[in-house]
Amino acid sequence: MNPVSAITHGIEVTVLPQYHEEMSKPSLNKFVHSYQVRITNHSGLDVQLKSRHWIITDANSKVRNVKGDGVIGQQPILEPEQSHQYKSWCPMSTPVGKMSGTYTMVRVVDNSEFEVEIPKFRLIANFKNN
């Protein structure tokens, strides 16, 4: 899969999804995907990632909303032009789905909050690409 990117308020979010055939069990409707995220601060100010909101939609149009503090247990502070990378995963009950969402960020200088778009990306089992 190809990476997707979006820039909001000078914060660039790039996501690279991947299907994991070795962990999936199609006969049991279990499809495992991972996604690598890179968040780069082009805003010129120090910012902190405070929370996330994921919208996960499967091929049956079932929607899950996942909200929580930080990402993988962290609330990183990014100085200008600094990046933070992490990898996470998403189990699906269908071979195809999509994810998108937002990060809530805070400008360190004045504690003002703002939302950053997580671009929509597709989750596709390898056998669906052929």
Provide a brief overview of the structure.
Helices cover 0% and strands 62% of the residues. The protein has 130 residues and is mainly β. It has one domain (4-124): ApaG domain (Immunoglobulin-like, Sandwich).
Overview of the molecule:
- This protein has 130 residues and is mostly beta strands.
- The chain has a single domain (4-124), classed as ApaG domain (Immunoglobulin-like).
- The chain contains no helices and 9 strands.
- The mean pLDDT is 95.
Question: How many beta-strand segments?
Answer: 9
Biggest sheet architecture: 5 strands, antiparallel
Indicate the CATH topology.
Immunoglobulin-like
Low-confidence segments: none
The gyration radius over C-alpha positions equals: 16 Å
Order of helices and strands: EEEEEEEEE
- CATH homologous superfamily - what is it? ApaG domain
Number of helices: 0
> In what range is the share of β-strand residues?
over 45%
Quickly count the domains: 1
| CATH architecture assignment name | Sandwich
- The end-to-end span amounts to 13 Å
Shape: elongated
Oligomer: single chain
Please supply descriptive tags for the structure shown above:
130 residues; elongated; five-stranded antiparallel beta sheet; 0% helix; mainly beta; 9 strands; four-stranded antiparallel beta sheet; Immunoglobulin-like
Q: What's the SSE blueprint?
A:
Elements: E1 4-8, E2 11-19, E3 31-41, E4 47-58, E5 63-69, E6 77-78, E7 83-92, E8 96-107, E9 112-124
Antiparallel strand pairs: 1-2, 2-3, 3-7, 4-5, 4-6, 4-8, 8-9
